[in-house]
Amino acid sequence: MTDSARWKATVYVGGLSSYATTSNLHDAFIPFGEISDISLPKNDHPNATEPHRGFAYVEFEDVEDAKEAVDNMDQSEFFGRVLKVSPAKPPKSANEGLGSKTAVWEQEGWLAKNAVDDEDRLAADGSQSAGDTRPDDPMQGLEGLDVAGPKLA
């Protein structure tokens, strides 16, 4: 299974109680289809009292099973907490998008999408000056007004 297909068959389960375990999650989500993996990220903080971070990823064998799990388990109660179940989003690369250590315009994907060559820029500038048919300024004629609102008698 490709990475994109795996992410389509994975659901995010948020709002988990500290009592939730992978075994409990498996029991709760198995009615919707064959589960290939459950990831319950551990708490990174050494002083944390919670055994996990409060969310999990449940990966199904089939994309339809994942959709069924989202439809049936979202807003359901699990160990006294209301779950938020949604399709999982693939993780972003550390070198792409906002928050990366590389400037946006230096990223290959951004350049491919937003690059404009000189010919296109000249054509755009020429079309604006040739047919300057911009509508009148809607603020024209309001220069003398110093108070907003209707005139009082």
TrEMBL record:
The keyword Signal does not apply. The keyword RNA-binding applies. It holds the Pfam family RRM_1. GO terms for molecular function: RNA binding. Keywords: RNA-binding. Residues 115-153 are annotated as: Disordered. Residues 9-90 form the RRM domain. Gene3D superfamilies: 3.30.70.330. This is RRM domain-containing protein. It comes from Microdochium bolleyi.
